[in-house]
Write a structure and sequence with these properties.
400 residues; mainly alpha; 4 strands; globular
Length: 400
């Protein structure tokens, strides 16, 4: 059993290592021209280094190695092997690009290995609709589909500064609380290690000017794999969450609520693409975050709003449980709120944008103008944080 102070120390170690290696990885990416170039679909105007996932991976790796030395848990090293595979495939995609079919095959293989090596699969519905144990003939295909779906959903939200990393931090905080209450100290520690590694990247990604890097596929695929494991593990009979099997809390509804925005946003985007006769995997600008960017919200404000929407869905589900709503009711509430707050907001704002022959409604034009006039990046606080993460304040002190 790991003590909580030790867990916090390992989180701090991940934070420090990520912060220290960040400038070295940034210089390497710049020197080797490993950048994401702007195009009609992307939101940046200049090439941006795309090895942010490497800094998070290194910070995690060092802290997890220390964790395994202190308290060996076979789940941790098995998961790290799978994360390394996804990281390397994502890095290859960032540098040279890989075929969608190949990446899909690797994702499917990694989820399958997760089932085999870690003995986790979605085989417990905790009494939802009267279902407890799910047979392998159903649970294994369900796990493969859900796993690949979650990985790609997380990969697809990596479109604006701060969104993917902020969402990852929010989800990890939620699972850290869950692992804390079920006394799974190893997974609790692993979860807060991820938080520690993501925080330095988040600040550089959002506030950095000369130090900005994108998470890249190496980071988003790795983060998606982590969150996939958390969900599958939570819905597995081998999970310590089994103690809630006969409680009134709907664990499947909780799992869906935790990832509500990326899941429902991805489903919406794929339906629209297929309806328009396009591949569901072909990138475009139909995600929820694009409507806020079109309204001239900053990347940070957009990330805060969307993560806030997910928190509202999650909190509403938890409140409904405390108020005595049944397991099925909790699930229906999550689905309803997701449709309203993800699909509803997207289609409402999009309709406002294209009214009046594309000129937009007065409401849309007013909001767009208002947010354009109130850019956070012009504030003194923003400039101070930007100078801090870019190292300009340290450089000025040295020059003095």
């Amino acid at each position: 059993m790991l003590s909580k102070p030790l867990s916090i120390c390992l989180m701090a170690l991940a934070f420090i290592v990520t912060a220290v290696v960040y400038p070295h990885v940034l210089r390497f990416a710049q020197r080797k021209n490993i950048v994401d170039n702007p195009d009609a679909r992307k939101l940046q105007r200049v090439p941006v280094p795309v090895m942010g996932g490497t800094t998070v991976f290194v910070g995690m790796l060092v802290a997890v190695a220390a964790l395994f030395f202190i308290s060996p848990d076979p789940r941790i090293w098995k998961l790290m092997i799978l994360l390394t595979v996804m990281y390397l495939v994502g890095l290859l995609d960032d540098i040279k690009g890989v075929a969608v079919a190949f990446r899909f095959f690797i994702e499917l293989t990694v989820v399958w290995l997760m089932i085999i090596l870690m003995d986790v699969k979605i085989d417990n519905f905790y009494g939802l609709f009267g279902v407890y144990v799910i047979p392998d003939v159903v649970s294994i295909p369900l796990t493969l589909i859900a796993g690949v779906g979650i990985i790609n959903a997380i990969n697809m939200i990596d479109g604006i500064d701060g969104y993917c990393s902020a969402f990852g931090i929010m989800v990890c905080v939620t699972f850290a609380i869950l692992f804390f209450f079920v006394d799974d100290s190893s997974m609790f520690t692993f979860t807060i290690i991820i938080i520690g590694a993501l925080i330095p990247f988040f600040f550089h990604n959002v506030f950095g000017y000369t130090s900005k890097m994108f998470l890249g596929d190496s980071g988003s695929l790795m983060l998606g794999t982590i969150l996939t494991f958390f969900i599958i593990n939570t819905l597995s009979r081998s999970s310590l969450c089994i103690r809630y099997e006969h409680a009134s809390l709907s664990i499947p509804a909780l799992a869906l609520a935790i990832l509500a925005v990326p899941i429902f946003d991805t489903i919406k985007v794929m339906i629209i693409r297929m309806y328009n006769g396009r591949s569901p995997f072909r990138p475009d600008k139909r995600h929820l975050h694009h409507v806020f960017i079109d309204l001239n919200f900053t990347h940070l404000a957009t990330s805060v709003i969307i993560v806030g929407i997910n928190i509202i869905i999650l909190d509403a589900m938890m409140i409904s449980w405390l108020l005595g709503l049944g397991k099925e009711g909790q699930l229906f509430l999550v689905i309803l709120l997701s449709l309203v707050l993800v699909w509803g907001v997207y289609f409402y704002v999009t309709r406002q944008k294209y009214c009046n022959n594309g000129a937009g409604t007065e409401f849309y034009r007013e909001w767009s103008s208002r947010n354009h006039r109130s850019k956070l990046s012009l504030s003194r606080t923003w400039v101070f944080i930007s100078d801090l993460v870019d190292g300009r304040m340290v450089s000025e002190r040295r020059n003095k």
